[in-house]
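Quick one: structure tokens for this chain, please?
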Amino acid sequence: MFCVCDYELLNRFFAGTINQDETIERPRLAESSKESYMSNFDERLQKAINRGQESRAAEGQAAGKKEATKEELRSLHSQLRLALSEHIEGCLRKLCDHFPGFDFSTVVNEDGWGARITRDDINLGQGNHRNLYSRLEMLVKPFSDAHILELTTKGTIRNKESLNRNNFRFLTEATEEALVEIIDNLVIEFAQQYSANG
């Protein structure tokens, strides 16, 4: 609450120069002042409403951009997954050409996309026989909320684990060339280990 005061009247009151018979009238706002205050309030009210609506619209746009970004990342993951799974298949087929006896299969399941080569050998040494299992599996994992591209590699040579690698790249930083190089290096590493132990 505020009070509009007439300073001359207050000074006379404190000085004791106001007569008891004198009537004191409260100052009143002119009609034009009332309209001025109300129009100012209306303007401020409308501006506040507009700011609130703009804020809500901005939040909606931010949520829309975030969803669009997620869809863009999902699309990028799909493109990289297709290119890398084709490259994995090509590399593992070539490996089968160099080491006859491996069976090639394409992998498409909930664990990811890629390929696998397997081989079962029998060791007939010194009167007993033993199965020797070898494999190499490379998969590109499905899209996740972490927004990464994950490449898993599992290798076994004659019943002994030789490779177990997970390579991660943020989708925003992932490049096909760098990931292809990782795949090539892993296949070459497996080939070297297999030829040394096979």
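Residues 140 and 151 are 5 Å apart (CA to CA).
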